[in-house]
Amino acid sequence: MAIKHSRGEAKEIAEAAGESTWAFSTGMIHSFKTRTVYQAHVVRFVRWARSIHQVKNLAQLDPRAEALATEWVQAQLAEGKSPYTLQAERAALRLFFGNRTLAQDVAIPRRTREHITRSRGPAAHDRHIQLANWQPLIRFLQATGLRRNELRALRDQDIIRDDLEYLDEIVVKVRNGKGGKARTVPVLPGREADVRAVLSGSDPEALVFSRIPKHLDVHNYRREYAQALYQHYAPGRGLPPAQGRLKPRDYDRDTAQRVSWALGHNRIDVVIRHYLR
Description:
Helix content is about 45%, strand content about 5%.
């Protein structure tokens, strides 16, 4: 674990030293979310190895890592797992075994926007939540685009209001976002009242949301925020086309970068692919 150590800074140092940073990795984990995801993938693999190949301890597993990891990834590919999931599973195993070329003979399909299904259309968990009961939270998400973990940690004092009554500016301070990075999130213009509505007004240390339902599709509202903010910053341009190969003239690069920073990302391609299209 390398919490509070910047992967981006490590990459810049490597580039300055003339090293290739294609598929760059520090060999460490820089966020708790990544650890949770990778750990789940590794545990599933270990249980599979124990069940199918009777591997009962790590001393037996390590010498067979290449063969078993290759067989495992091939099995996931045959099950129809998305390229994004396959890449994450293989990356988790490579970090676990300390081998960056593990299972490299498995040809994983190229990741494309069409393979992205998260928060696009109805999902099974939608049936397990009454959205009408969570409207203040939903409106806040639409106004700020915060991640679930950022919502959990948000306190009254992190919502900064302007003391001048004739100004309606308001921002949200994220103290510990993805990768341990802090950022200032602009509230979507016109939605300031939805942010002020959730404040307790009494204790600056109070959590803004004491409960966040597990079936709430937070990422869906994060996409809504990103698209609305993009259209606010670039009025009249419209969103990048959802289909076909994207051309430079199809989107405003500076606006996409501003939205990227608001979401806590640096790479424009991630925001365009996952949020704007």
